[in-house]
Amino acid sequence: MLAWTIYLSFAGALAEALLPKGRNALARRLALAVTVGGLALAVAGFAAGMGQERTVLVDLPWVPSMGIHYLLAADGISRALVLLAGLAAVAGVLFSWNIELRTNEFFAFYLALIGGVYGVFLSFDLFLLFVFYEIAIVPKYFLIAIWGSTRREYAAMKLALYSFAGSAMVLIGLLAAYATAGSHSTGLIELAHAGLPASFQMRCFPLVFTGFAILAGMWPFHTWAPTGHVAAPTAASMLLAGVVMKLGAYGCLRVGIALFPRGLDPWGFSFAGIGSWRDVFAALAAIGIVYGALVALAQSDLKFVVGYSSVSHMGFVLLGLMTLNGIGVTGAVLQMFSHGILAGLLFAIVGRIVYERTHTRQLAELETMHLSSKLPFAAWAFAIAGVASMGLPGFSGFVAELQVLVGAWKANPWWTVAAGAGIAVGVAYTWRAAQKAFFGDAPPNPRLHEHGREFAAITWPEVTGAVMLTGVSLFVGLYPKALLDAIEPAVKALLAGGGQ
Amino acid sequence: MSGFPILTLLTALPLIGAAIALGAGRRARGVALVTALVSLALALAVWTQLPADGSIGLVERAAWAPSLGIEYRLGVDGLGALMLALSAIVTLMSVDAAHRVHLQPGLYFALVLALEAGLFGSFTALNFFHWFLFWELSLIPAFFLIKLWGGARRGPAAMQFFVYTMAGSAALLVAFLAMFAATGSMDFPHLTLLASSGELEQTVTAHLGPVMVWLTLGVLAGFAVKVPMAPFHTWLPAAYAEAPSPVTMLLTGAMSKMGVYGLLRIAIPLFGPQIAQIRTPLLVLAAITVVMGAWSAAAQKDLKRVFAYLSVNHLGYCLLGIFALAVPGTDAATRLSQAAALNGAVLQMFNHGLTAATLFWFVAILQQRTGGHRGIDNFGGLRKPAPVLCGLMGIALFSSLGLPGLNGFVGEFLIFRGVFPLAWVAATVSVLGLLVTAAAILTVIEKVFWGPVAEHCAGFPDLHGGERLALAPAIGLMFLLGVLPRLVLDSVNPTVTNLLAHWRF
Predict the structure, then answer these.
(1) For residue B183, what pLDDT band results from cuts at 50, 70 and 90?
(2) Contact with chain B for residue A322, Cβ under 8 A
(3) Which helix (H) or strand (E) holds A178?
(4) Dihedral angle over CA of B226, B229, B234, B238, nearest 10
(5) What pLDDT score was predicted for residue A447?
(6) pLDDT at residue B364 above 80?
(7) Which is it for strands B57-65 and A274-276: parallel, antiparallel or unpaired?
(8) Does the distance separating the beta carbons of A168 and B404 come in below 8 Å?
């Protein structure tokens, strides 16, 4: 059933591409129908998979002489992330309802990206996973380069080249693993069981992990993320922060950690407290958390605030992965889900609800507009999403970050200290952004008086999307068991070795 | 299969077509189109008749000049048949693309068909003399096509092309005459057999002294020019840029494969141990070809030169795969890697032929509509007036980039899969090539398709129905092979296994 999410999305992309020009309303409705269909499949697949371990969806020989299979499967982690992709996809369409420029092409690229994302989360063959991973890069490039804003060509090229560079590193690592294992199969499970020598894992792990972590926005390879997010049209930045960055983190877990568990072992010597790749990447993650938060605090552009906050939040995911204990990694996966929902919501508010009406994202200018009275819906949605993402109990971010912190404490208390500092700064930048953008009390700027006029009313797709995302975050925050029951066993199985 | 001489017929057909086209004047293109279509049908028929075990089938033999060791001997395996199909497809595309040949159309299309005959002949020949005849035969029409119908600096370009290739041919010829002197045979299967037992080297050394290495270098030089491999590639950008675009399609799509094919059919089988000895410098050159090709492509301003250097880059992957597999060792892991590299290289030959020919086809269309413009900066914002053209050309560009789901990816992946365990440094360096290629291709997309509409692109007509129909099969094939590489690999893999079993390093 879950496999159909992929086919449905690609079929939708094709249909959109073939749609005659000018049928914008039809293109929108079609995209909504396809993504809702995908979400329904994802929900059904999630529910049906409850309590089950990894289930194989499709297994067909693809390039038999090389042992390459078209192998789709799902475990709890996959199901949770497919669900996230489904939610983000629907929300993205809702917040793109006002796209009038080449609407059908926009949704064609959009749905192709979604199809690639579903594919990555469901691939259990390395070759196939790599194929879907690459497929996701190209539509992203077009979405930014054609429908983007601020320096879009630069941002799109930067993002594409960073992604390709990451893929190239991954490719080298995967080929090395495949060759060293002497395996006749590119299946993830077979490779995980191949017993790669520890010294090889040591060398290969950092390459593959870094390759994937580039897309997850790991410091110092994060610089594509803020520029890309800012330049991207709203739906694309929602997807970029909401699911594409998760592809990187997912690859780190599913491929990096599962295939090369010994790569995290101590080197046998230590330098300045760093004694293994695990320490290295945990340190980078911690730096990312604090650095992203501090930079977000200093931004003058609201979208950059959200962009850098993504770097910070993704730092939690990477830190959680590096704890290597059940609770920390579970927290990381839950944080992927939670951040996917909340970052999507924040980008939607900033990019669609606010910017499309005010035509500015500069905090100094927004401050003069008194949006809390003119756009109360936006102000309150931002406030809710902001407190949820800073980790207020009751929302998904809290459960996720708490688990990461607990896991990190078990692994190394200093990591928790760094992450805690990041949370504190997170409160500060969220507060500052909300205060300036929505609850500002600066005198109206006469130069911007044209903005003094009434803003267009909030439309139904915006309300639906915002309510849906807030609701999901609230639901997960209040009843995390729904997701944890799926994620936790899968994480334990993955960490227990033997792959998945 | 005995009986019907389908390969002879296949080779003769374009020659007959050429003779008719020569006298057909304005209707020459129609003649060429029909000939190319029938050839394609025959080539596909050959594809279905291949022996299942990957050995050479459809053999035709006849005595020719027995005293000279020359026999009329034809046959194809999966590799040969794939190249026949590719040549037929590319020729058809080239004829299709050559809409407006005002100057002596009869001669033009006769030369194109003669070139096709040369390709068919050289991909089916199993005897050096016979093979060499067709190798040269293809060179002459190519020279005149550049010389007579080329761009402004066509004279020097054609001459450079001719001299380089001839120098390579001369080296090949000398090497084979030396081997004939020693063994009395020019027969590929026979010589391969001798080589695989080590007898070839002994006989040659006994008769001529320790010249085996020189013979190897001579043969390699001949093919290195044709492929081309750095530093023998310098003829290529000028030739590809100055040739009319439909001819460039033939040069890059089909003729460059003669070089790679020669490496696989001649150089590796006969000189395996020698190539294994000088494998490291060869790998260095292959990696240079890959990376240099990509960087040069990124630096060019002329679309044809961009695509020309991309061709250098893509064929560099073939070279990489072929040289990397030249290692002694018959354990299962090595065998698997060799098989992967070879499968990948063969697939890449086909994929590159298809994709490069399609890209130059698009250049032909762009030139036709803008009065000959082909600089990257001459275009801009083409998406607005010509969305269909840009969409289809974009697909071809992404196929060239190696995007999964399109044909280019599978071949390159298999090559890297095979090369990595055998020569990881060369593989790692070459990955850089992938990255730079991506930058070069994205730049083309950005400059040509997007931005403000350039002045002479304003009234640019989009592809009309006929052109869409003509391009659709090529684009469709890119998708088909990207999703179902088995269509080709199922026939190539047995051949690869069979070849590897007969090679000795």
Answers:
(1) confident
(2) no
(3) helix A152-181
(4) 60
(5) 63
(6) yes
(7) unpaired
(8) no
pTM of the model: 0.86
Does A359 score more than 90 pLDDT?
Answer: no
C-beta of residue B14 within 8 angstroms of C-beta of residue B114 = yes
Angstrom distance (rounded) from CA A77 to CA A329:
11
Whole-angstrom Cα distance, residue A49 to residue A40? 14
CB contact under 8 A, A182 and B414: no
- Is the per-residue pLDDT at A499 higher than 60? no
Helices A481-495, A76-94: crossing angle, 10 deg rounding:
130
Q: State the smallest CA–CA distance between residue B417 and chain A in angstroms.
A: 6
Contact call for A182 and B333, based on CB within 8 A: yes
Q: B466 pLDDT exceeds 90?
A: no
Sign of CA dihedral B364, B366, B369, B372: negative
Contact criterion met (CB below 8 Å) for A30 and A102: no
Chain A segment 145-184 residues within 8 A of B by beta carbon are 145-146, 153, 157, 160-161, 164-165, 168, 171-172, 175-176, 178-180, 182, 184
Model pLDDT, residue B504: 85
Would you state the pLDDT for residue B35?
93
Peptide bond into B228 cis (omega under 30): yes
User: For the CA atoms of B278, B282, B283, B287, what is the dihedral angle to 10 degrees?
Assistant: 160
The mean per-residue pLDDT over the stretch A104-119 comes to 91
Chain B hits for A160, Cβ within 8 Å: 438, 442
Answer whether B489 sits within 8 Å of A65, measured CB to CB. yes
Structure tokens given for A340: 């996917």
Give tens-digit pLDDT for A120-179: 999 999 888 988 988 888 888 888 888 887 678 788 888 888 888 888 888 888 888 888
Rounded Cα–Cα distance for residues A446 and B385 (Å):
42
* Tokens standing for residue A80: 């949770």
